Amino acid sequence: MTTTKDDLKTTNQLNKFEEKKVVFSVSHLIEIFPSPLPKFNEHEKEICSEVDLFRMSGHTKLGCQELFLNNFDVVMGESEGKLYKFSLRDFIEWQLKRMNTLTIYHLIGKTEASVENILDSDVEYKKDPEYYPEDWLNVYQSEKYLDKGLSYIERLKKEVPNAFYKVLIDSILKDPYGLLNTDWYESELEGNIDQIRKAYAHWKVPLMVVSTGIFSPYIEKNHSDNLLMEDYNLQRMYIRNYDEGDKL
User: Fold this and answer.
1) pTM (two decimals)
2) Whole-angstrom distance, CA of residue 10 vs CA of residue 86
3) Cα–Cα distance between 112 and 168 in angstroms, integer?
4) What is the average per-residue pLDDT within 78-92?
5) Is residue 182 within 8 Å of 105, Cβ to Cβ?
6) Stretch 75-85: mean pLDDT, rounded?
């Protein structure tokens, strides 16, 4: 590598690297699964271990996408033989902007992100007496309000993107409900997937699985979709529970 110390003084804008391949190094992978955890993968092969479950969330009926995070407020990335430094917030925002709306809906619920306060509620209520974004975004009322919740998120992304992503990223990273807070990592998946599946099968909301290790997601050159990944060193996997339900 030809990287110098001066190169690493600058935090780079990720969107300037979309025409290059960039390989990152991060510590966390966040997935959202339906409850109960699936028994079979997309090829009808039985999921017998946590390794089989890893990166399966996008192939479930829920279809939520992955979110990569890091333990530090910067993310290192390699491109064309040089090492670059990126802001963790920028790295997260880049992913969120390419994420399907249902995944964002569940991330809002899992982090208590107060996106319902971004718009002026008094003004909105005058236009629509049935304006209740708190209900629309409440996953426990998703059978009734899911479509409204998804539409509301789309509106925020279009009309107030900067405020929307700031609130969501703040909630993803900051306590008390931040996704890096290990206080909420309730159960480790460690050769016990059948027991874990049974322990959370009664939940009415999706399950968040947090994987830790050394992950190398990358941006493919001229590839506009979200991050790809082939290389990783998976170390631990946990069920995250921030008082969403009881474990049997």
Assistant:
1) 0.94
2) 8
3) 9
4) 95
5) no
6) 95
pLDDT of residue 243: 79
| Tokens of residue 66, six digits | 């992955």
Mean pLDDT of 127-153: 95
* pLDDT at 214 > cutoff 60: yes
Token pair of 49 as six digits = 């271990």
Which pLDDT value is given to residue 13?
86
Q: Stretch 35-48: mean pLDDT, rounded?
A: 94
- SS3 per residue for the chain: CCCCCCHHHCEECHHHHCCCCEEEEEEEEEEEECCCCCCECCCCCECCCHHHHCCCHHHCCCCCCCEEECCCCEEEEEECCEEEEEEHHHHHHHHHCCCCHHHHHHHHHHHCCCHHHCCCHHHHHHHCCCCCHHHHCCHHHHHHHHHHHHHHHHHHHHHCHHHHHHHHHHHHHCCCCCCCCHHHEEEECCCCHHHHHHHCCCCCCCEEEEEEEEEEEEECCCCCCCCEEEEEEEEEEEEECCCCCCCC
Q: For tokens 């530090």, what's the residue? A: 72
Domain positions in the chain are 21-114+174-240
Q: Is residue 26 packed enough to be buried (19+ CB in 10 Å), middle (13-18) or exposed (0-12)?
A: buried
Rounded CA-CA distance 36/33 in Å is 8
Q: What percent of the chain has pLDDT over 90?
A: 85
177 C-beta neighbours (distance < 10 Å), count: 17
